[in-house]
Design goal:
By secondary structure, the protein is an alpha/beta fold. It is built from 5 helices and 7 strands. It comes from Bradyrhizobium nanningense.
């Protein structure tokens, strides 16, 4: 695995479908010192708590055949909307020069969702992606996990 580089002033974005931590490296590449810059949270109850409709039914044009339509997964839709807004925030930060380098740390599922919303400018600013779900850990643990795994040195 190539060593990840987190320069001074670069952002480490740790997220999942309902919470995002934007951490800034105030140290250098050899001795990262991550500090919380922003925290974004969105409550996201289960689909059954968000939607009240039963799955739909379609009737065939001829005959008496019916088929069901899959119910919308409101939980997934809320996660996608949250990650889309996070990608927009990161794009604005890169465009304005707030940061020049980003490292994304998210569960593989969240990484797959947010990648679709990367702009070209944001895609160029992202230096590394790590497929780990670390968002529930305190900042010092996130730093430790990345250093121990050899992901950031």
């Amino acid at each position: 695995m190539d060593k990840m580089r987190i320069d001074k002033g670069d952002w480490l974005v740790v997220c999942d479908g309902r919470k995002a931590l934007i951490l800034e490296n105030l140290g250098d590449e050899m001795f990262p010192n991550l500090h919380t810059k922003e925290v974004h949270e969105q409550p996201n109850p289960s689909t059954s708590a968000q939607g009240s409709d039963a799955p739909g039914r379609l009737h065939a044009a001829t005959g008496g055949a019916r088929s069901s339509v899959e119910q919308t997964d409101w939980h997934d839709e809320a996660e996608r909307a949250f990650l889309r807004s996070l990608a927009g925030r990161l794009d604005a930060a890169v465009s304005s020069g707030e940061t020049t380098g980003l490292t994304m740390v998210a569960s593989p599922r969240a990484l797959g969702m947010i990648r679709a919303d990367y702009s070209d400018l944001l895609r160029k600013a992202i230096q590394n992606e790590v497929g780990k779900d670390l968002v529930k850990l305190p900042v010092y643990e996130i730093e430790k996990q990345l250093l121990l795994s050899g992901a950031a040195k």
